[in-house]
Amino acid sequence: MESRIRIVVAKPGLDGHDRGVKVVARALRDAGMEVVYTGLHQTPEQIVRTAIQEDAAAIGLSILSGAHMTLFAKVMELLREQDATDIVVFGGGIIPEEDIPELQSMGVAGIFTPGATTEEIVEWVKATIPASV
């Protein structure tokens, strides 16, 4: 049985624009990954709970609202509290370049800003995230 990378993809907070995250989720799925898209308006608690329940190897967050520092920080905190720091967190959206080093210091493994292609994201995921058994 072939193992596949399992990813929870989520739209945290009040941001209601989901076209981009759906394109990325489909690209990941088309590349052979198992993708669970949680939908709009998810709380960090819901996202982390889903990732743990789904035995996901990664969480991909799409944030266009400007609340990226708060939302990524809360997801990372909850993963630490749940002893689930083996779940890789990455994301994208409208994220200023100057915020990326701080996000990386929080433990966010990858950030994709506007202009990133689905091919870049898929290749990064394949190179970075272990497949589930």
UniProtKB/TrEMBL annotation:
**What keywords tag this UniProt record?**
Cobalamin, Cobalt, Isomerase, Metal-binding
- For this protein, what is any one GO molecular function term? isomerase activity
Signal peptide feature range: none
InterPro entries this protein is in? Acid_CoA_mut_C, Cobalamin-bd, Cobalamin-bd_sf
Where would I find the B12-binding domain in this sequence?
4-132
Q: Which Pfam families match?
A: B12-binding
Needed cofactors, names only, are: adenosylcob(III)alamin
PROSITE patterns according to UniProt: B12_BINDING (PS51332)
Coiled-coil annotation reads none
Give the NCBIfam families listed for this entry: acid_CoA_mut_C
**Matching PANTHER family, A to Z?**
COENZYME B12-DEPENDENT MUTASE (PTHR48101:SF3), METHYLMALONYL-COA MUTASE, MITOCHONDRIAL-RELATED (PTHR48101)
Query: What is the name attached to this protein's record?
Result: Cobalamin B12-binding domain-containing protein
User: What organism is this sequence from?
Assistant: Herbidospora galbida
